[in-house]
Amino acid sequence: DIFRTLREVTRARSHMKQFKSVYVPGSSTSPASYKPLLKQVVEEIFHADRPDSLDIEHMSSGLTDLLKTGFSMFMKVSRPHPSDHPLLMLFVIGGVTASEVRMVKDLISAQRPNVQVIIMSTKLLKPRDVPEMLFAADRLHPDIGV
Question: Which of 60, 103, 122, 136 is the right S-S partner for 66, CB 3.0 to 4.6 Å?
Answer without folding.
Answer: 60
